[in-house]
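Repro:
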Amino acid sequence: MEKINLTSQTHPRAPEIIQLGDKLVSASDYGCEETRKLLKIKWLSEDSISQIMAARTIAKLGHAYKEEVVRRSGERYFDHPSGVALLLLLELWETDPDILSAAQFHDVLEDVKIDSLEMKNVIIRAASLETLRITEMVTNPEKTGDEKKDKQIKIRHYHLISQDEKASKLKIADRMYNLRSLEINHLDESELTDKQLETAKKQIEETKEFILPIAEKFGLGSKLLADIEKVEKRVREVKLIFIQRITKDAVKI
């Protein structure tokens, strides 16, 4: 597969959804130089910074070989793990280099078409065995096609995460980023569809059932709940717009 240029300007910027002081910033604003400066400001050691930056570079290269290089929201796939790491650092005040490195890698095992064992060895060499452990814990299990069995696997997956604080923090940050970057939050009402509305509703349901209890266990419930409530409010607004649209069309007939 031909390598994709991740510096291409043909894709939209990642949404400005990460809180930095009194403003919102985008993962697209933080390239290597900006990320390194930010890590230094947070008083991370040079060894920790080198580990995180190595993880960032390798994850970026891995995502460059995806068949699709943009998410549903339009942002580059790599902007997502980069954004999750920034959210951990800036909003959850996380400075553990293994968690921040795992944030960079957290989608590669399930998304990137590279031999799994080879990728795991790369993660260990670039970062640490602990980074791999966290990455594996948060990686979504493969679906079997059996709805009941898949539900049981998901329950066990989140139960195991809930027993590990590092994996829990990463999963919470990942969901906070996903909720904020939902298309329903960023597209004009005229562009929204029922599918995007259903996606948002499913995200809310899954978050409340599986991830909110974990966030509450580790003192992050209020932060995650704030994001849930914002999406719920937006869902109500969009549903009302859809009803008004249907009513308007019916009057025309």
